[in-house]
Amino acid sequence: MAIKFENTRFDPDLTPFHGLAQQMAAAVGYTAELSLDAQLLQLLRLRVAQMNPCSFCLITHTKAAQDRGIGLEKVAHLASWRESTMFSDAERCALAYAEALTAYDLAAFPSRHAALTGHFDQTAIAEIAAVVINMNVWTRLKLAQGAVPVEV
Question: What's the per-residue H, E or C state across 7-60?
């Protein structure tokens, strides 16, 4: 099935913000080459898309996860990662961090950040934060502009 996306609320190119978001995507989006494991970063992107339920991002990042070699079973139950043994300890820490940052959970965030230091260096933590922040920008932008999938 082929789809395209239509904006039902506004054209994002009416302000310079869309260009800034595109620059962020080039730097830390799913096509960017970062030092951290590409599969882990893709899981984080997809989890943020699930939490913010953005159709554009869910479709885009599910495909990107498959393109990165993440198995269908792992993608299918990402939302229930806490109930799975398919995720490594490092992935679990990163997913918990991504959820706390996305949900703006001020009570949980300090411990989630501290847990990352057991698995990642400062550069990797900065990349994780940048990826999660970028995804939150994009999910909100696509939700605001009303990007809906349309079958073609």
Answer: ECCCCHHHCCHHHHHHHHHHHHCCCCCCCCCHHHHHHHHHHHHHHCCCHHHHHH
Span 95-104, pLDDT tens digits? 999 999 999 9
pTM (predicted TM-score): 0.95
- C-alpha–C-alpha distance, residues 51 and 23, integer Å: 23
pLDDT tens digits, one per residue of 35-93: 999 999 999 999 999 999 999 999 999 999 999 999 999 999 999 999 999 999 999 99
- Helix (H/G/I), strand (E/B), else coil: 117: coil
Cα 12 versus chain centre, distance = 20
